[in-house]
Batch of 3 targets.
Target 1
Amino acid sequence: MIMALPIIGREKEKEKLDKILQSKQAEFLALYGRRRVGKTFLVRQYLKDHLVFDISGTKEGAKEQQLLNFFGEYLRRTGKQKETEAPASWHEAFAYLADYLAQLPQTTKKHVVFLDEMPWMDTPRSEFIPALEFFWNQHVSKMDHVLLIGCGSASSWIRKNLIHARGGLYNRISQRIKLMPFTLHEAALFLQSLGVNLPQYQILELYMVMGGIPFYLKEIEKGKSATQLIDEICFSTQGLLLEEYNQLYHSLFRNAGHHIAIIETLAAHPQGMTRAEIVTRTKMSDGSLSKTLQELMECDFIGIFQPLLNKKKDAIYKLIDLYSLFYLKFIRPNKGAGSHIWEQLSKHGTYTAWSGYAFENICMAHADQIKSALGIRGVYTKHSSWKFKGDNALPGAQVDMIIDRADQIIHLCEAKFTKENYALTNEYAARLRLRKTIFRQATQTKKAVFTTLLSTYPALQNKYYLEEIDSEVTMDKLFEP
């Protein structure tokens, strides 16, 4: 018998679900987040004693197929004691469900209706949304003992049709949960639950490839190194992540061509691009670009970073999905290259450059841990980037991660991913010193400016380190809760 995996982390989400279960009124929860992040697992594990109806949409399934699947769950729940003919429409299907819910014993225990992958149920001309509106407004909203959960990986669909609905579902969502990928702390706990005991550096290597996606991380087997695991999971013919990219975007977006074009454009420019630069590269129309960028941001594939002191039009878009970055850089160009390819690739200079960007993305995603390490968790901060093109007086300079504190301090962060303790050289120290000078003069800031090193292992505190580094946050701090 295969034991179910325990729920790792998700403390805030479980606390919220507990409060919803104690509610004295009907609740409509919108649950969304990136594909493979664990939404279905959370509901089916944590709420398994409350589920009274559980159906998942079928990718690219016609309306008739979706309704047959719905009817199959209905028959199972009712013991075939009620309706015997499959519904011909979503209005009829939800009428069946409303009748079934009305006849359940009304105890203090919440009954949970889980509609998973709801965007897939909303096929063209299916009338799914109007039927859902009527089902909630006419029936479930009056059932104090019912929690309706609408779930989907296409976050843009959930936000448009449920959270920001303008029709009959306007302002009907009473609760929302956006499930995020695991942090490094949660990923380490998850691997421990699998019996995997690896040092933090190797966990970080795996995280740089897979991000905090539980579905990917569960492929990790104990007794193997990070290099072995990456080779098997990403490059072998049976590896889960060899073909995942081809499904990832097409499963979320009906016309994924534009989404993939933007993803691959940003992958080629890991330091990020402005909207104008993306337009130049992709040749997309303004309306199409706006919609596609928004959908990718809502699904957490790309992030937008507002430059310090710069205009909104200078905002930088970056590809932040770690798996997509890794796939496009290493997996796709090396398909069919044979076994042990990663051991070779990880020794190349391209790996050094890529790992630097990946580590920087991880640091940005763990800004709270960095603030704690700096002792400023209680200080209001803004996170941004900064780019100066240069002028007649000053050369150009760029800082990819800035922590701007309300207490009159700015941290210019420098991420360094190394296998050993980093040793600052005279040349590199001079670059950091020049960058700080350019930043002060170009921004005319009155705040104190610190250079903060984000490193894997503590850097050697040589002469150049002591001259130029004001503070340092090491890898182990990123693993804190």
Target 2
Amino acid sequence: MLIDTHAHLNFKDYKDDLNKVIKHSVKNGVTKIICVSSNIGESEKAIKITQKYSGVVHAAVGIHPHQTDPETKLSPEEQIKKLGELARNKEVVAIGECGFDYSPAPPGEKDRSKKEQALLFKRQIELALEAKMPINVHSREAFSETIEALNKYASPKLKGVLHCYSAGKKGIEKVNQLDFYFGVDGNLTYDVGLQNVFKQIPLEKIILETDCPFLSPEPLRGTRNEPAHVKIIAECLAKLKGVSIEKVAKITTENAKNLFKI
């Protein structure tokens, strides 16, 4: 059994064949998927998907540091209020993805100011604590700021994962001090530097992610990613660690169940 803890099944990339994608995932041993969100509309859609695929798909509701819905009429505070309402749904197991991103927004999205990113992240950390849920943290070109923000709320109650961890060996101890997990994605299969980093992280601190439709692993780079491909990431991790894929599956699944209570 494998768990994909970060999939964007609520993206338009899957509008025509979502049922086929989920069946393919289950067939490949990926029997649980967390559908992660980046805005209010996606969060609502994630909940609807979990209701249709109950027991297989679970939802994370959140607001990305970039404005992924540039046409929204809701203010940041109104979005947080709506997010709090959505988080009460029984299908929701986490808040996110949220955090800091200081890289330029990709096409179709809009940059937020650092001040607005900080406000949204702070409110979502507070929401996660209030809802007693883990937080799924996005951090790009802003690792120090991300850790600083999380440390302000650091407590045994605050749990979470650094999605698509990319802060190198120097950042490992800072994440360990928070008692957060490290998310590993398809880029592990072709990024030698990242492979050297994850050799230093114990399996007991790792959870598997695809970030689909992005970050397809080798040999599928350039194609649409999907949850079934988490198996390729697990195989790569097993090779790096010198252990069986069965051991990787067992430990990372236990980690995901422990974090998300699924």
Target 3
Amino acid sequence: MTRQTTDLDTISRPAAPALANLTQATAIEQARAVAEVQAAVTVAQARPRDTQRAIAEMRDTCGRMAMASRAFYSVPNRGNGPTVHLARELARIWGNLDYSVRELRRDDEAGESEVMAVAWDQQANVRSSRSFIAPHAKMKGRERVKLVDLDDVYRSNQNTGAKAVRECILAVLPRWFVEEAQDVCRQTLNHGEGVPLSDRIAAMVRAFREQGISAERLEARSRKKRGQWDAGDVAQLGIDFVSITRDGVDAESLFPEQPVTIAELGGPMLSEGDPA
């Protein structure tokens, strides 16, 4: 006898649970990350920062030329302000503050990476983050040049991420703490740990001359006559000098051989033998 089937006869078994895209290693890593966060908060609350100690250490650190000379940046048409070096140092001094830059995704076909920067005050539970798309390109003049070399892409992402983490750190640090640090750094630059500015300028010119870079090229770089240089100009030239002598940056890229007109410098130029 033929039996006709109905919908009631075709009641299916309960579907087997779908396999989660979660490996044992991933689960362990997630659990470890959660435990680390909980431990960090517990330690921060158990050992709160000593604000007076942080202020004293900040003043001592920013009172040294090694820090003050790297505390500020100034880029034509891009602004100026505290550098990521100062932000990281203040984060270390303030304590109970964690920050990081992570490359979340890289798409070589689209020529872009997704990067995230985070700063987290574990004691106050204040967090700031920036997530953005970083194109694999750089500006050459007014044209965008695509980056192909993997090291160039890495350095570009790190450079962009450093700018973002600087903003995150400065967002969670107390404003008064950052402002005082900048004031101390400016005072250090102006006084030069007891060395007069004129002596530092003369020493800077001599050091560059030994590298084959004339005072005229330094003036072109700063767009000021040597007699108009201030402490910030000397500090920037010091950073350039270290980049050339220690980091291997091409001197021609920072100090190109090009004529400088009197109009560009705002007056008659000083020769290397003239006093600053």
